[in-house]
Amino acid sequence: MNVFLKAFFFLLSFTLFHFGYELTGFGVLKPFCGINESVFQHLKMAFWGYGLLAIFEYWYLKGKKGFKQNGFWYSRVLSMVVVPWVVFLLWYIVPAVYGRINSLLPELIWAVLITYSSGLVVSTIEKDMERIGFRRGAGVSIITMLVISVFLFTIFTYKLPWLDMFEIP
Predict the structure, then answer these.
(1) Where does the chain show beta strands of DSSP type E?
(2) How far is CA 143 from CA 8, 27, 28, 163, in A?
(3) Which of 3, 66, 76, 138 is the most exposed place for a label (fewest CB within 10 A)?
(4) Closest CA to 43 of 18, 23, 64
């Protein structure tokens, strides 16, 4: 899939997870969707948003010539684990250089730009990772990081730790 198009779909998927719980109130969505505006919740939205995108991409690509399932899944799962941290790194450029954004429109524009850019960065790297023949140790490490991520994003939805990263700014 074209990386620019994929980044756009990531932005849409992220938006779905950003507003999914708020718009529906369905409790079953809490572990996947944002439930407040904390940094942690946005990282969770990126994680699950990229995961949903990977599932749709698999359905789209699985019948195509030359599709390699092994490289696909390991690269997508690793991207899913990494994308929240890319969002984190890119988001904090403005606070580091400028300080706090005190107006809604510029903050919203920055948020959209960062979400799209994060999808672009991860999907660009993912293209090369997909071609790698992942060995057993790498696969175990990737799946372990996935399991830990799912565990933390779920447990910290219901039981916040004492860290300021979980506070609503």
Answers:
(1) none
(2) 26, 27, 24, 26
(3) 66
(4) 18
Instruction: Return the residue matching tokens 């991860």.
Output: 122
Q: Give the position of tokens 């941290």.
A: 85
**Alpha-carbon gap, residue 30 to 157, rounded angstroms:** 7
Tell me the pLDDT tens digit for each residue of 112-129.
999 999 999 999 999 889
Alpha-carbon torsion angle 33, 35, 40, 46, nearest 10: 20
pLDDT tens digit string along 46-100?
Answer: 999 999 999 999 999 888 887 877 788 999 999 999 999 999 999 999 989 998 8
Question: Which three-class secondary structure state does DSSP give residue 37?
Answer: coil
HEC-encoded secondary structure of 66-114:
CCCHHHHHHHHHHHHHHHHHHHHHHHCHHHHHCCCCCCHHHHHHHHHHH
